[in-house]
Structure formats: C-alpha cells, structure tokens
Structure to design on (563 residues):
C-alpha cells in the first residue's frame, strides 16, 4: 500500500464525528454510497459561490466559467476511464444512464440497429442489481423481445457454460455487471464481449462497483456502453455517467428531449445536437458534475492501482478473519480471486437486520437486506444478507471492529 | 445500552418461541405483505365469525422485530371483536409513530407496549408494523366478505 489510510481519513470530514454516543465511525457501506473528501465538497460549493450560471447558454462571463468547469469535468471523467470527451454523457445517476440506453433503444425505429422486435433477445444475468435488470425486463415487455439470463453458480460466479445458447444471433443487447454489489464477484467480461460481438449484440456494462475501486479502461474492456454513478466514487449525489462508443451514440435515438439537446426546431419537428448534447436535455446537474471531476482528481492522485491493491489486501484480511467466526456464511466468493472488497454474509440463527442493528450500536455502518438484487438473494437461498463494503478510507482496525461486533451480536442474541 | 430498549426480553422470547405460527387452513381472509426494503415476508390467515376473530395465524420469515411483533399481534387479537382490534391497531400505530416520546397505553396494548423502544429506531418501525398492516388489510377483506 503506498498511501496512508490515516492521512486519507483526514481528508474526509465525516470521520471527525462520532456515532451512537461517542463511538468511532466505522463506515462499511461504501457499496451504497461513499463518503466525500473536502476536495469534492469544496468543488461543489465553489461552483455555487463563484461560478454559478447555466452552462452552454448565456452571453456572460459566469456562463463561460460554468461551461468551462462543466466541460472540464467531462474531460477529467473521460481521461479517468480512457474515453473520448464526446463519448461521456452526464446523467443524474447510473440508474438513469441504464434507463437512457434502454428507453432510447425502445425509441429506435425499424431499420435502426437498436430497433427491437419479438424476433430479438435481451440478455442479462441473475446477479444484476435491479437497476440493470428492470429497465431490460420492461424493454422486453414493451417490444416483445425475449429476456434471457446467465445463471449464478453456487460458488458465486456466472455460469457461462451455455454462453452460445444464451447469447444467440437473435441477441441485440447483453447487460451485465462488472462487479456484483452483493457477492463482490468480478465478472470475466472477455468471453461475454467476444460472443456478443460475434452475433452483433452490444454489451452494456454496469460499472457502479468497479469504476470507484479499480482502474477501468473502456477500450481495454471492449464493451459498448458503460454506466456508473458519481456518489459511489466519492463524488456528489445527483450525477451519473453513461459512456458509449461514439458511433453507437450517434445511431442511438435520444431518450429525454427538450432544451439544449436540439440542433433545429420547428413547430412540428426537430433535429438533434451532436453527442453528448443529444443526451443531455435541460440544464444539467452542473455543480455535481464539477464535484465528480474533483473526486476523480482526488482518486487519480492516490492512484487507482494503489487503491485496488489496498482493497485486495484488506479483503484478504477480512475474509480470513471473518471465516473464523462460528456460524458465519460468506455469500460470495470465499477466496480473494476476482473479487472486490464487498463481503456479504449471514450468521446462523441471527437475522441480517438484527446483526446490522447490533453492529450499528457499536458505531459500525453496514447494509442489510436484499441489496436491490432480489432474484440473486433467492438464487443464493438467503432471505437477506448483511453486507460490509470497504473503500480507501477503511483499514484493518475497521475489520477488527466488525469481527468483534459480530461476535458481540452472537453473545447478545444468544442470551435466550 | 440503548439497544436494550429495542430488544426487550419479551420481544426476543416471542422471536424464539413464536405464537400462532403455522397457517390455519380455515380463514375468511388471507393476506401477504412484504417489507420491500429488507425482503421480510408475512402471510396472515384471519378467521372472523360473527364479528369475532376466532383465529389469527401466520407464517413468514424476517428479523426478530417483525416476527415477534406479528406473534404478539396474534396473541393480542385472538378472541377480540373487529372493533376492539381496530382500537388496538390504532393505538399500536400511534406508538410506532411516536419517535420514542410515548410509552404506549398498557391497558390497550398489554405486552405489546414493549415495542415502544422500536419507535426510537426509524429503520425498524416498518419491521414492527409489517404484521399489523397485513392484519388491517385482512380485516377489511373479512368485513367485505361478511357484507
């Protein structure tokens, strides 16, 4: 590890406060949303206090500064994921990014490569977050296309053994997560991308759990669209990103229509502005996009490879320690191969919600439930799990605190 | 510890030894409710004869609070009239909305006042109410049947 967690924590003001009557905050819920450093909070605040104006409009200095800041953020985001600037679209969330693609495909007319009919199929996986399942499920309903999916094996990996039966010449789109928000599993994309492209399908990647935690290069991945949210990557809420290959974005019809996404307008028709403006109708979430730029600058300064190395070593430590707890079941890969720093678990005889409540009383923030992946919970045969997700500001003390608290919960609820 | 106000002994006792669990096949209304944020599920079978709750049975899976709450609900409402049940459900709902400011009316709620502590934990109020909201639906259905 080449950065000091203690130094990093100083940049995040939330760690100055205490939890539940003076306890140290142990924040293990970054999979839901990450905490924010001063650099991000200040960037957002500075935009409002010094540069606020509507971007891409207005013949005044503030409008120029606001546009520079907003487009500057786009350039930072593009560089962060190895993309061209005109391929980066700001949305309000990753959920909106994925819905944008799904609804825009639904808007495609016959002859457009994205047009779907009952002769086509859409492929997802059983481990998708609802945000990368329901938009496709509903698109299938609207167009009559068939929905197919890869199953998840009991060792928490995608079952690709029947890849040629799942991705067929009928398949138009394959939507898959880079890293499961529940299991932590990092999916092997190479085989999926290869097969999808063989049959002429596009690959939409949900990168919400990967972009904040590892170096992601869209060209190297070979996918066609990629979505993530800002707030899981220490950026502000209210900003998400959709990246797409320039040529595909050109062919994709718009989703939201209105101001700033047009080229010409008459009372009965309109033509579209070039990408990315075509997909950014209305005044965007400017301060939030600028904040996301600051977040990526912060992460880049630490180094994404260093962050990933830190998380690998922390996951190693956490898995080993947690597996010593009697009655624990890790719901996800038991080893540190191709997995991220998200560890879901159950504890014998204690409901996940009760575990969450007890550890909260010890100052530890976790998530409990089905984590917006209900079909996956059913497939893993658990009603719910408790999830610890680690990030750059967590260290081994946090893991120790968690293990101690789980043991404490077993004593607390074992009284009867 | 603050946590003890949530996990009262009576609650954990009902959780470990749930009452009226296992669905009675004779019922006038059957209702299933889900807590969408955590996946807890409860199915209630309510049997009303001449305005009296002759049996209230349930099955489901969930956290200690949701399971203990429905267990206590079944205990409390069995043999009550629908009007009496309505008063009890209203009183419990008010207690859950009290954000820790009410101790609950022990004359109406009997043992269920132990859930007063739950109202201090906004994340758990829905757990405690799961069975009660299912009962409300079941009671409406039963009344519809009898009319």
């Amino acid at each position: 590890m080449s950065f000091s967690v203690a130094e990093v924590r100083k940049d995040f003001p939330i760690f100055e406060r205490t939890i539940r009557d003076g306890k140290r905050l142990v924040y293990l819920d970054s999979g839901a949303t990450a905490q924010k450093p001063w650099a991000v909070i200040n960037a957002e605040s500075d935009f409002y206090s010094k540069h606020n104006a509507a971007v891409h409009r207005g013949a005044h200095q503030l409008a120029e500064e606001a546009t520079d800041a907003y487009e500057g953020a786009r350039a930072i985001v593009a560089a962060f994921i190895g993309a061209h600037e005109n391929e980066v679209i700001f949305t309000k969330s990753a959920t909106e990014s994925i819905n944008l693609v799904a609804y825009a495909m639904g808007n495609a007319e016959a002859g457009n490569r994205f047009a779907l009919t009952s002769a086509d199929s859409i492929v997802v996986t059983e481990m998708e977050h609802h945000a990368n399942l329901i938009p496709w499920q509903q698109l299938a309903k609207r167009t009559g296309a068939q929905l197919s999916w890869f199953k998840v094996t009991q060792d928490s990996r995608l079952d690709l053994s029947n890849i040629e039966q799942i991705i067929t010449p009928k398949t138009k789109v394959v939507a898959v997560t880079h890293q499961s928000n529940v299991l932590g599993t990092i999916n092997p994309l190479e085989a999926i991308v290869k097969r999808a492209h063989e049959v002429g399908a596009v690959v939409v990647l949900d990168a919400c759990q990967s972009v904040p935690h590892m170096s992601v290069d869209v060209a190297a991945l070979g996918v066609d669209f990629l979505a993530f949210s800002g707030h899981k990557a220490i950026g502000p809420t209210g900003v998400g990103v959709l990246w797409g290959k320039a040529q595909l974005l050109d062919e994709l019809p718009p989703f939201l229509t209105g101001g700033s996404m047009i080229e010409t307008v008459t009372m009965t028709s309109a033509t579209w502005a070039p990408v990315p403006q075509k997909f950014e109708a209305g005044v965007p979430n400017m301060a939030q996009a600028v904040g996301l730029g600051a977040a990526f600058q912060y992460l880049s300064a630490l180094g994404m490879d260093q962050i990933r190395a830190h998380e690998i070593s922390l996951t190693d430590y956490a898995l080993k320690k947690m597996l010593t707890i009697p009655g624990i079941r890790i719901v996800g890969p038991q080893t540190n191969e191709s997995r991220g720093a998200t560890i879901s678990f159950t504890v014998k005889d204690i409901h996940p919600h009760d575990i969450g409540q007890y550890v909260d009383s010890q100052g530890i923030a976790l998530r409990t439930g089905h984590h917006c992946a209900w079909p996956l919970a059913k497939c893993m045969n658990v009603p719910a799990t408790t999830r610890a997700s680690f990030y750059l500001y967590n260290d081994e003390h946090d893991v120790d605190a968690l293990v101690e608290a789980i043991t404490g919960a077993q004593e607390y609820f074992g009284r009867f | 510890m603050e946590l003890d106000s949530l996990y009262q002994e009576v609650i954990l006792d009902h959780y470990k030894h749930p009452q009226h669990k296992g669905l009675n096949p004779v019922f006038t209304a059957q209702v299933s409710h889900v807590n969408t944020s955590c996946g807890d599920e409860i199915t209630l079978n309510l049997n009303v004869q001449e305005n009296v709750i002759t049996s209230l049975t349930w099955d489901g899976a969930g956290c200690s609070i949701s399971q203990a709450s429905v267990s206590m609900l079944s205990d409390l409402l069995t043999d009550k009239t629908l009007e009496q049940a309505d008063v009890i459900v209203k009183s419990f709902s008010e207690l859950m909305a009290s954000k820790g400011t009410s101790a609950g009316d022990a004359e109406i709620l009997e043992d269920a006042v132990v859930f007063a502590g739950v109202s201090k934990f906004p994340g758990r109020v829905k757990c405690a109410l799961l069975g009660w909201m299912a009962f409300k639906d079941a009671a409406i259905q039963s009344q519809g049947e009898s009319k």
